[in-house]
What we know:
By secondary structure, the chain is an alpha+beta fold. It contains eleven helices and ten strands.
Amino acid sequence: MILDKIDQLLKEVSNLSAQNADEIEQLRLKYLSKKGDITALMADFRNVPAEQKKEVGMKINELKQLAQDKLKELKECVGQQNKAEDAPDLTRTPYPIRLGTRHPLTIVRNQIIDIFQRMGFTLAEGPEIDDDLHVFTKLNFAPDHPARDMQDTFFIESNPNDVTKSVILRSHTSNDQSRVMERQQPPIRVICPGRVFRNEAISARAHCFFHQLEGLYIDKNVSFTDLKQVLLTFARELFGPDTDIRLRPSYFPFTEPSAEMDISCHICGGEGCGFCKHTGWVEILGCGMVDPNVLEACGIDSTVYSGYAFGLGIERITNLKYHVADLRMFSENDVRFLQEFQSAN
């Protein structure tokens, strides 16, 4: 009687099938759980006559092993099927990928570089960590000159015995210009974009780091008129053909004469508004003729050559173009802010 029941269960177990893990679990409960059919057979084993115990015991063990092997096989088949279903279909149309956008500072920087490259300027780049010799001394900053306070920076390695050997974070990209003049004789026509650092309190209008672009042109018979025309062309290319400029006398250690350049407010057209503080003008850069002391310090004969230089803050220009209220937004990496410039690429 019990042998017939075992043979019947052997046939059932041999033909087991399942489509998913839930069905496999139901089969396990039916045959191998504490109340399962095979466990019930083992409970009835005590009633088997002694002469049949060996045969019945072997059959029950065979049935139990078959059930375990069959359930394991079903689990592997279902697992492979699920894995195949989860695998990516390489023939299907891909999901749409959201494209990023260039940073607004990069957009404006590239526009400025493009304008000056079309006027014959080439790119020059230098180190952000440099010595005092190239950042200040060769640019006509005396060791104790108060103009150094205007560009207070971060010292990495101070040398009180020889200030030229102090290592600092550059406060302007003029160090690139001094290095170009060291290794190259005129004519020189370069622009120097890069990141600079100054010891300033961080606020909506200032930061301890920002981006600059400076320009330098040295050749024979270069005049202030050449400088003015280049800057006028630049302003009209960047802000529109109706833009006017004005130059106001100023002071920089490395240029003489020096000037601050304003552009006519492109919001009110020079009529006066809150953005330009009702003056009709907005300051954008500093400029001037290269001081002969700078030329001589860099190995260029100031009796033969002359030149001009200018420098502007890229954050300042970007603010003027896009009216960004807080300078800190440029470095906070807020995706919502950056997405606003998608169409400006």
